[in-house]
Design goal:
Elements lengths: L2 H10 L3 E6 L4 E4 L1 H7 L8 H5 L2 H13 L3 E6 L5 E9 L5 E8 L1 H36 L6 H33 L7 E4 H11 L1 H6 L3 E6 L4 E4 L1 H19 L4 E12 L4 E10 L21 H6 L6 H11 L3 E6 L5 E8 L4
Parallel strand pairs: 7-9
Antiparallel strand pairs: 1-2, 1-5, 3-4, 4-5, 6-8, 9-10, 10-12, 11-12
Helix pairs in contact: 5-6, 6-11, 7-9, 9-11
């Protein structure tokens, strides 16, 4: 194979690739390799071009043993590549080096690992508690009626937490499975919002809270009725739960206007409360799975830390977006933007 043929092949590869010649200098590189390693790559000694000890060792071993070697290469901004080097023996002698970006794969694997660890932790705590109380009821408190009633009440709360966690996990799984299928049901937005507020009216009364409606959209959306109901039920329940005694929650909608970020007309729906609010440093992480602003308080109120993650995925499935504003002592406002139906 001639140098011209190798150059044509390297430039056609979908991966960052370069060829090191017999004099240890780069003789061919493609644009993707230049983006990773910088300009002026061709003609440089591979030691100055690649630098990282594990990479240099892999190339040296490849040259010595004439065997394919693999390792990792760390690019700028914590970008991680699978690096593979193989000897060329037909025509031009040298080493072919390719770099495959595996950053997203690594992040996905880490997220999966963290998710499993969090689920295990969330289940272990109530399970340990329930098991302890069962042992107590079978032993020392076997004939103690008052203790039995108290322990059974606690066990009921813990099993309710586990049931809530399982329900949320199943809901999150369903939404993720449907993420590529945009819903097509026609939904009358204000009717749906009014029904959600009505269903939560009794819960608001329990803490002397109020839900005030300012619905002015009169819009039809293409969506999934049950999932959109879940979004606004979750946001209002959070406002009631964490807003405190006597909190006022305002549910508002506005007619569709052009949204630059969505690049189409979108309806704006906001859930605003007069509660304690929270430090805005938490906002970027609010929709992460199992993230809590106040983990102790959230657990006391039965929260499992998946509600806003589910909300995020549902809004994404509807090709919308959400903004959050809050400050300590100034309440919180969650604003959802959803594309209006094209008539």
């Amino acid at each position: 194979m001639s140098l011209v043929q190798i150059e044509t092949l390297i430039k056609a590869l979908p991966l960052a690739a370069l060829v090191i010649g017999g004099d240890d200098r780069v003789i061919v590189s493609n644009e993707k390799a230049i983006n990773v390693l910088g300009d002026g790559l061709t003609g440089r000694n591979y030691i100055t071009a690649l630098r990282q000890p594990d990479v240099l060792q892999a190339i040296e071993q490849c040259i010595k043993d004439k065997q394919t070697q693999t390792t990792h290469f760390l690019g700028e901004g914590e970008i991680k590549f699978d690096l593979r080097c193989a000897c060329l023996t037909d025509g031009i002698k040298g080493v072919l080096v390719t770099l495959n970006d595996i950053t997203e794969i690594e992040k996905s694997a880490q997220l999966h690992s963290n998710f499993v660890a969090n689920v295990s932790h969330e289940l272990r705590t109530p399970l340990t508690s329930v098991m302890g109380f069962i042992e107590t009821l079978q032993g020392p408190a076997k004939d103690d009626r008052k203790a039995s009633e108290r322990f059974l009440a606690i066990m009921a709360d813990e099993t309710a937490r586990m049931n809530c966690l399982v329900d949320d996990l199943l809901s999150l799984s369903r939404v993720e499975a449907q993420s590529q299928r945009r819903p097509s049901e026609r939904v009358t937005l204000d009717e749906l919002l009014a029904s959600v507020a009505h269903r939560l009216g009794r819960k608001a009364e329990e803490t002397n809270a109020s839900i005030n409606l300012k619905l002015k959209s009169n819009e039809i959306l293409l969506g999934d009725t049950d999932q959109l109901r879940q979004v606004f039920t979750n946001l209002i329940e959070n406002a009631l739960k964490y807003g405190g005694e006597g909190v006022a929650v305002t549910l508002a909608s506005a007619p569709a206007l052009y949204d630059a970020r969505l690049r189409e007309n979108a309806v704006r729906i906001s859930v605003r409360d007069t509660g304690a609010g929270f430090n805005p440093i938490h906002i970027p992480r609010l929709t992460e799975r199992f993230y809590r602003v106040d983990s102790h308080r959230s657990r006391e109120m039965g929260g499992v830390g998946l509600g806003l993650a589910i909300v995020k995925h549902i809004i994404s499935r509807h090709r919308g977006r959400m903004d959050v504003k809050s400050a300590v002592g100034q309440g919180a406002e969650f604003t959802v933007y959803l594309p209006s139906a094209k008539m």
